[in-house]
């Protein structure tokens, strides 16, 4: 297929999928590379309607202006680039082209030099000669992105030069909300009432003596979306999300694990409101009767941090935990004020599976998919299984697309073929394990929420 035919195919694909941002951007880039600057400008403008502020699209639009001789318009477009995190180095090259078009050679040379200082791969001998700029950039230290601030925590006990490097945590901003979580309306409503609304409507809750913050434990089969739900909780609140793993806490040095845990909570207390998330919490909060020595000290420290040094120490911190094995968690963690409520995250039903597939297919070239047929064919699948199905279907479709030279849309048959290659086992195995615990240890009624799911498990 020639370049012209490939462009025609992409134009048609974009016409059939007007809301497909990646396809719009792919078309715009291809038009720019083909020298069709005017049409590329229109394609970039259409892409910006779908993703306002996207840096690469803005830079592409500016370059299309430059190639049409609209240097002033290019510079105005580049001024709309967000300054945080750092502006892409390629923007400096396009700015240099625009400034050179305006006759400002000195400013153009400065922009070009700064760009190649940041990314030596952008160096262009012809442009450097025109500008009189150097094309051998010095080494520049890398600055981490501003939206993922890395914070050191942990550490005393031995001399600093004797200790291994301290663990590092990322406090991130989540870009997903409950809109991106299919189904689970009861779980989302519980999270809103227990964790989000006390922060969003503090005066109303204060009238009843309730403060913002607290803990909640999510449990259920692996792959059902517990971590995704925790990230969405942070996104719904617009708060920092701190994802804590075992490696961030456990340390070979005596006393250091407890210090690391304390430092993580102190970090969260400085960044309120925030969501502090402990995945696989059963490894940190196991029954103390099963533990000895150092592990018991870590569990006790965890309980102390959840309580805080005073009644308001953890105000504004939403402590979420997730586990596949809640029956291993020490009962002390389920006390009110700690993880006072345990919420079952169930396997998705047919309606939820259809919604998950719709979310997963966003931004991908597709025909009209029969979601009811796909939901019926995925009985027993969790979100992770469905994501795996889509990945298999995409990999197969990419082979065909590479042969064709343009993106081919996914069809219902593509997904059904991928479904037939996947055998989900996580849900049934988990329910069988849960049945062994729940049916013989539910005197307090803590597992009542699980009972309906266990009746037909064999």
If you had to describe this structure to a student in words, what would you say it looks like?
- By secondary structure, this protein is an alpha/beta fold.
- The protein has 3 domains: about 5-130, Tetratricopeptide repeat domain (Serine Threonine Protein Phosphatase 5, Tetratricopeptide repeat); about 150-345, P-loop containing nucleotide triphosphate hydrolases (Rossmann fold, 3-Layer(aba) Sandwich), CATH 3.40.50.300; about 350-420, Helicase, Ruva Protein, domain 3.
- It is built from 20 helices and 7 strands.
- The chain has helices at about 5-15, 20-35, 35-50, 55-65, 70-80, 90-100, 105-120, 125-130, 185-200, 200-205, 225-235, 245-250, 255-270, 295-305, 350-360, 370-375, 385-405, 410-420, 425-440, 450-455; strands at about 150, 170-175, 215-220, 240-245, 275-280, 315-325, 340-345.
- Strands 1-2-4-5-6-3-7 form a 7-stranded mixed beta sheet, sandwiched between helices.
- The longest helix is centred in the last third of the chain and has 22 residues, at about 385-405.
- It is globular and about 80 Å long.
- The N and C termini lie far apart (about 55 Å).
- Mean pLDDT is about 80; it is low at about 135-165.
Give the secondary structure arrangement, pairings included:
Blueprint (H helix, E strand, L loop, with lengths): L2 H14 L4 H13 L3 H14 L4 H13 L3 H9 L9 H13 L3 H14 L6 H7 L16 E5 L15 E6 L11 H16 L1 H5 L7 E6 L6 H12 L2 E5 L1 H4 L6 H15 L3 E5 L15 H14 L9 E7 L18 E3 L5 H11 L10 H7 L5 H22 L7 H8 L6 H13 L12 H4 L4
GO molecular function: ATP binding
Keywords: ATP-binding, Nucleotide-binding
Protein name: ATP-binding protein
């Amino acid at each position: 297929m020639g370049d012209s035919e490939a462009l025609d195919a992409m134009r048609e694909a974009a016409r059939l999928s007007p809301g497909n941002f990646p396809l719009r951007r792919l078309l715009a880039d291809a038009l720019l590379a083909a020298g069709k600057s005017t049409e590329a400008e229109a394609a970039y403008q259409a892409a910006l309607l779908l993703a306002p502020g996207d840096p690469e699209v803005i830079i592409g639009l500016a370059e299309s202006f430059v190639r049409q001789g609209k240097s002033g318009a290019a510079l105005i477009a580049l001024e709309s680039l967000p300054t945080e995190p750092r502006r892409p180095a390629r923007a400096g090259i396009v700015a240099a082209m625009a400034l050179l078009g305006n006759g400002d050679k000195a400013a153009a040379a400065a922009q070009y030099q700064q760009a190649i200082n940041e990314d030596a791969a952008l160096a262009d001998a012809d442009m450097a000669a025109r500008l009189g700029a150097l094309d051998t950039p010095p080494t520049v230290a890398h600055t981490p992105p501003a939206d993922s601030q890395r914070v050191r925590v942990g550490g005393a006990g031995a001399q600093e030069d004797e200790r291994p490097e301290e663990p590092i945590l990322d406090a991130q901003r989540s870009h997903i909300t409950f809109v991106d979580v299919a189904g689970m309306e009861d779980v989302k409503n519980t999270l809103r009432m227990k964790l989000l609304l006390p922060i969003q409507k503090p005066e109303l809750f204060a009238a009843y003596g309730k403060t913002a913050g607290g803990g909640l434990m999510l449990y259920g089969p692996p792959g059902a979306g517990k971590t995704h739900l925790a990230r969405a909780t942070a996104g719904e609140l617009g708060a920092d999300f701190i994802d804590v793993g075992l490696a961030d806490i456990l340390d070979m040095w005596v006393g250091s694990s407890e210090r690391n845990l304390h430092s993580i909570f102190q970090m969260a207390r400085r960044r309120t409101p925030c969501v502090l998330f402990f995945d696989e919490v059963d490894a940190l909060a196991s029954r103390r009767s099963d533990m000895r020595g150092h592990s018991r000290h870590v569990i006790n420290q965890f309980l102390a941090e959840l309580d805080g040094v005073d009644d308001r120490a953890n105000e504004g911190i939403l402590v979420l935990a997730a586990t596949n094995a809640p029956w291993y968690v020490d009962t002390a963690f389920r006390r009110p004020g700690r993880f006072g409520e345990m919420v079952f995250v169930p396997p998705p039903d047919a309606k939820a599976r259809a919604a998950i597939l719709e979310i997963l297919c966003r931004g991908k070239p597709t025909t009209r998919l029969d979601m009811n047929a796909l939901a019926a064919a995925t009985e027993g699948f969790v979100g992770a299984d469905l994501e795996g199905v889509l990945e298999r279907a995409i990999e197969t479709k990419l082979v065909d697309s590479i042969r064709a030279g343009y993106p081919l849309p996914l069809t219902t048959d593509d997904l059904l073929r991928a479904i037939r290659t996947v055998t989900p086992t996580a849900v049934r195995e988990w329910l069988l394990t849960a049945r062994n615990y729940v049916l013989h240890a539910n005197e307090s009624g803590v597992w009542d929420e699980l009972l309906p799911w266990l009746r037909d498990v064999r």
